[in-house]
Amino acid sequence: MDQSVILQLNGLTKQFAKQSPPALDHITLALKMGDLLGLLGPSGCGKTTLLRLIAGFERPQQGTIELAGRRVCGEGMWVPPERRDVGVVFQDYALFPHLTVMENVAFGLKPLARRGKLATGQVKEEAQRAIALVGLAGFETRYPHELSGGQQQRVALARALAPRPSLVLLDEPFSNLDVQVRLYLRQEVREILRSVSASGVFVTHDQEEALSISDWLAVMRQGQIEQVGTPEDIYRSPQTRFVAGFVTQANFVAAQRVNTHWETALGNFPALASTNFTQGELMVRQEDLQLQADGHGAWIVRDRQFLGREYRYTLTSANGQTLYARTDADTRLDLNETVVATVTGDRPTVFPLGLA
């Protein structure tokens, strides 16, 4: 195994009931040291199950897991969660309500002391270091109910980081927080993990969150990985229609191939010579639509949302088609106004019809 790889999954399969489809179906994935991997997908796609397998809370039917070059699962090997050298941050924080911040963070260090890997006198010192790392110095004697949601999540992160694990697992860590706290804390968590050179895997169903803080992104669907890549690559070059729709929230417009081009309701576009299908769907990101007021246009503005830096428009055509467009805040169109919609870029992506 490559020494720079902190996590290696090979052929992981998990099925909860014999008659049901697998929750995970032959997952193979690698993560390098210091990187943050986002698992993105809709509810029920298997992302939390995958996280639980890595943590050791579930056992797979097939496949292997290696952490920092050590096999912890598969082919007769099974290492329990407390000996896997991973830290876990749960969605609901999972703090002990009767323990103070210091006691909660120290709780994760005591097993190391019992196994002789940490001197008893160092437990408080290491807990204090982790508390300071997450910006909660001075809160050591407070109880969870005396903290805000964001502060409780910081305590959970400090508890996970205190033993200095080789890998940190985060299960939708920001979903219970208010929007402003979530935006601030997710960036802060990324910076904290980087400051200690920690590797991490986090689960989310929020596209913006996944794109903003991941080094690598694995988009999951029905127990399988549809695409792995950098956030930029996945957003700009989705390999499947599902990834295009889920990650970019793109529009899809019917496309008919005629000779060397595609005919669509948004105009004609050149087709690749290698294309072997004639019915398709043109993918158009919301920000790639340009709108111009025109009394002879084919689209009508049915809704307008002001989002601060931009507007989001809902457009409909005479035959009932719907488009969503995002423009800068200087492009303000009136409701029921007729517009021309054009696509930026020379060769938009076309997916074969019927491939969801």
| Contiguous uncertain segments of 5+ residues | none
Largest sheet: 6 strands, mixed
Overall 3D geometry?
Answer: globular
Give the helix/strand class. alpha+beta
Give the amount of beta strand, in percent.
25-35%
Number of helices: 9
As laid out across the biggest beta sheet, the strand order is 7-8-9-3-10-11
pLDDT averaged residue by residue? 92
* Quaternary structure annotation: single chain
Order of helices and strands: EEEHEEEEHHHHEHEHEEHHEEEEEEEEEE
Outline the secondary-structure elements.
Layout: E1 5-14, E2 24-32, E3 36-40, H1 47-55, E4 62-67, E5 70-74, E6 77-78, E7 86-89, H2 101-107, H3 110-114, H4 122-133, H5 149-161, E8 167-171, H6 179-195, E9 199-204, H7 207-213, E10 216-221, E11 224-229, H8 231-236, H9 241-248, E12 251-258, E13 261-264, E14 267-270, E15 279-284, E16 289-293, E17 299-306, E18 310-317, E19 322-328, E20 338-343, E21 350-352
